[in-house]
Design a protein that fits this description.
Blueprint: H1 2-13, E1 22-23, H2 31-38, H3 48-71, E2 76-80, E3 87-88, E4 90-97, E5 100-109, H4 111-115, H5 122-135, E6 139-146, E7 152-158, H6 161-180, E8 182-183, H7 194-197, H8 202-208, E9 213-214, H9 215-230
Parallel strand pairs: 1-3, 5-6
Antiparallel strand pairs: 2-4, 4-5, 6-7, 8-9
Helix pairs in contact: 1-3, 5-6
Bound molecules: iron/sulfur cluster.
Iron/sulfur cluster binds at residues 30, 32-33, 186-187, 190, 195-196, 199, 201-202, 205.
Length: 231
Amino acid sequence: MLKELIDQFYLDQQTSRKQNHFYVSDAGKCPRAIFFKFKNAPRKKMEPRMLRIFERGEHFHRNIFDVLYRLRIGVVTEVPMPSDGLVSGRADAILSIESKNYVVDIKSMNSMIFRKLVQPKEENIYQLQVYLHYFQIQNGILLYINKDDQNIREFHMKYNQGLAESLLEDFRRLKKKLDEHVVPKRFAGWPKNWQCRYCQFKEVCRLAGEEEIAWEDFKKKMKDQEGSNQG
Ligand code: SF4
């Protein structure tokens, strides 16, 4: 009884809001899934359990912020990124150690993933590179926390201009698709890529097929499908 009430609470928190600008966390992600978020395509609700996991992750972030402030290393947290109107985001922290500035991005994960972490995750590298680009800072740190035993691992990274520019170019390409109302092709890794496995748009993506499709035509296709499911 109580479990159902708590789960329902989390389900009710999820409003299917239309995304209207790119976030740094979209860097390197499936363009089609981002397109669907902008167009508010029908999506599967996230499991309440997953939302509780995210909430717990935020708690770990706050703990680390607190420690960073107490270390007195010239830290600012949750820093809004200077934006050119294309991408927006907030870096977890910017700090200074031995006169060197760093952008810090904090990620929390369970033991199983943490144990296998011999190098930073690709999507985290992309995110950090976009931060480094906009903040014009040369050094970044990805700080991983094991939620189960509180172990910490850090990876240092230098700004890679080529990589950052290519990620921004991907955003510009997707913006063009959004302006032209064209659903991008399926992501190359479909359907085995982790992004597809956790994608809330799995169903609509399947219906859209592999190639690009005009958004208006696809909306009609979704409507027809809905009609045939009811009929
Ligand atoms: S299922 Fe995969 S290819 Fe389709 S929208 Fe989601 S992430 Fe992209």
